[in-house]
Amino acid sequence: MTRKLPPLNAVRAFEAAARHVSFTRAAEELHVTHGAVSRQVALLEAWLGSALFRRSASRMVLTDAGRSYAAEVTSMLDRLAVASMQFAQQDAPVSLGVNAPPTFTMRWLIARMSSFQRQHPEIEVRLTTSLSTVNFHENGYDIAIRGAHDPLPGCRSDPFMTELVVPVCHTDLLERGRLRDPGDLRHHTLIRYATEPYSWPDWLEAAGERDLQAANTLHFEQMYFALQAAAEGLGIVLVPLFLVVDDIVAGNLCAPFGLLAALQRQYYANVPLSGKRSPAVRAFCDWLAREGRDTEDSIANWANSMGWSISAIAPPDLAVPQPPDTWTVPTV
To answer: Which Pfam families match (predicted)?
Structure first.
């Protein structure tokens, strides 16, 4: 059966005019002239063979037939608009806002994002960086990644990776000698930064060198700059091992004391407590968990190859033990 449809532009013009009961306001909505709306309505009336409006010198009203027809047309156009919008959105990428610390984003997250994009091409990730207090309402992100000692209050906090903080430096400093045990740090420059998760006094106390005074200290605002200074051989910095393990394996950096007195906390994927987690949020959190496990496995394998045991490190809520007597110091 062949459909017998009226001219659709005329139907659209009539529907707007019927809603506003005004050709002028309909013309403004449709961005056409008053005369264009009038001609389209007249065309539809001729096609239908019935008057839709009753006009007088002072006002214009719908006829009974026009009022009934307008109700049906408005309903059908609304359904068409909804169906068209749903169809257009079904293949549109789902937007996911992720906020994370700057150095973590640059040195760990971005390097792994391609695998998430391959697995979930339908999700468009918007990455922002910040160290500020998590506030989903004001900042508009869906997931906030933070390193912390405990889950963040007011959030659902899923731990996905353990952060081990150890001293790191350029291999040249180790090769020059005088860096065989923590006491040798008195001959070196300690690099500090404002956002450090642990301070040098924290590590020195855990390593049994509470009163040690270093030869010099360099201060930076961000971890990224402090780490770059260490890579240039300017001193020794306390940083999360997972951020530098690739550089250590490549021989560009070293952990001169291994896992001795390693300090630790957790990295969490934080989402709002209110509301149900979307499929995109669940997918990203699951992916973070897998990537975190892979990173921890890589660190464990590297540590074992050096004769160090990750199992010697205490859980985050326990005191850090002293290393065993058989602890070995790397030579590279």
So the answer is: HTH_1, LysR_substrate
Does pLDDT of 235 surpass 60? yes
Per-residue pLDDT at 212: 95
Are 194 and 289 part of one and the same domain?
Answer: yes
Q: Which amino acid is at 243?
A: L
Spatial contact of 222 and 102, defined as CB atoms under 8 Å apart? yes
Residues 113 and 58 in one domain: no
Kindly state whether residue 325 falls inside one of the protein's structural domains. no
Which 8-state DSSP code applies to residue 313?
A: S
Cα–Cα dist 137/273, whole Å: 12
Pull the structure tokens for residue 171: 């291999």
Residues 184, 149 share a domain: yes
Residue 325 has pLDDT above 70, yes or no: no
The chain-wide mean pLDDT, for the chain, equals 86
- Of 59, 90, 121, the last residue of a domain is 90
What integer pLDDT is reported at residue 90 of this predicted model?
63
In 3D space, the residue among 290, 324, 288, 263 whose CA is nearest the CA of residue 104 turns out to be 288
Going by C-alpha positions, the residue among 242, 243, 257, 253 that lies closest to residue 301 is 242
- The answer to pTM > 0.70 is no
- The residues facing 217 across adjacent strands are 190
State whether residue 24 is helix, strand or coil. Answer: helix
**How long is the chain?**
332
Enumerate long-range contacts of 174-183, CB under 8 Å, 24 or more apart: 174/254, 174/256, 174/330, 174/331, 174/332, 179/256, 180/329, 181/257, 181/329, 182/207, 182/208, 182/209, 182/212, 182/257, 182/260, 182/261, 183/209, 183/212
Residue 310 pLDDT: 73
The burial of 244, by beta-carbon neighbours within 10 Å (0-12 exposed, 13-18 middle, 19 or more buried), is given as buried
**Chain centroid, CA 95 distance in Å:** 10
Model confidence pLDDT, tens digit, residues 88-103: 656 557 899 999 999 9
Domain residues for the domain of 99 are 95-312
Q: How far apart are CA 200 and CA 188, in angstroms?
A: 13
